[in-house]
């Protein structure tokens, strides 16, 4: 996930959401998030609401739906967002494995994992430096890329180490370290819906397994193909409507729907919206 795309998408999405409206945002990557300006209230899959201000950095797990509202309708929101890959988190885990020996596998309880930086301003500075390193890494194609990667890893480890004392950190880390089958299915549908018919059979073939094996894998991860397919398509549709202001017929095409009225109804049902959609109908 591009840090530029992630940041611009989420900021635009929040800015265009009225303060009284709660909306959903599916995270296909774990992210570290810091509010630079304004304030938001956030929760994970009907968990407890958490107020985020400029004094907080929060660690949000992949594969979860976050829900948020702005604290004030007219308030400008500015965020620093850093996508954190499973590879990065596994590196951090290995570097600090001795600290996790005493911890047992904990069930995830949808609590927002945050740390307060008001007394440690250097944490905010290193977090910002890590974001700059990732941006440079995305644009860098020369032989120095390994040095940039190492520098970024040091910064990321420093930031994540401040979460070690938080009770919610270990279960959040657990849910984000591994690339699950449902993650692969979600990503494939997100990037290919509209280009081809993303059926169970096609994706099973792409993942080099039988359809029955794919079904069993997804069931073991407490989901199924239909749920992932709908979530992936609707999340992509929301991004296209909120950020790109794309016309509804085009959005339907981009996410693999031929029947536009059916798509509009599916979109409304998924996001439980009774108010008119914030998109241009043409």
Describe this protein's structure.
This protein has 12 helices and 8 strands. By secondary structure, it is of the alpha+beta class. The chain has a 4-stranded antiparallel beta sheet. The protein has a 4-stranded antiparallel beta sheet with strand order 7-2-5-8. Residues 1-5 and 274-282 have low confidence and may be disordered. Pfam families: HTH_18. This is Helix-turn-helix domain-containing protein. Keywords: DNA-binding, Transcription, Transcription regulation. One of its GO terms (cellular component) is cytosol.
Uncertain regions: pLDDT < 50 for 5+ in a row? 1-5, 274-282
Task: Give average pLDDT, whole number.
Answer: 80
Report the CATH topology name of the largest domain.
Jelly Rolls
Q: What would you report as the Rg, rounded to the nearest angstrom?
A: 19 Å
Largest sheet: 4 strands, antiparallel
CATH architecture of the largest domain: Sandwich
Query: First CA to last CA: what distance?
Result: 31 Å
Protein structure class: alpha+beta
Rough outline: globular
Q: How many helices?
A: 12
Name the CATH class of the largest domain. Answer: Mainly Beta
The ordered H/E elements are: HEEEEEEEHHEHHHHHHHHH
Kindly state the percentage of residues in helix: 40-55%
Question: Which percent band covers the strand fraction?
Answer: 15-25%
Tell me the count of domains.
2
Number of strands: 8
Strand order of the largest sheet: 1-6-3-4
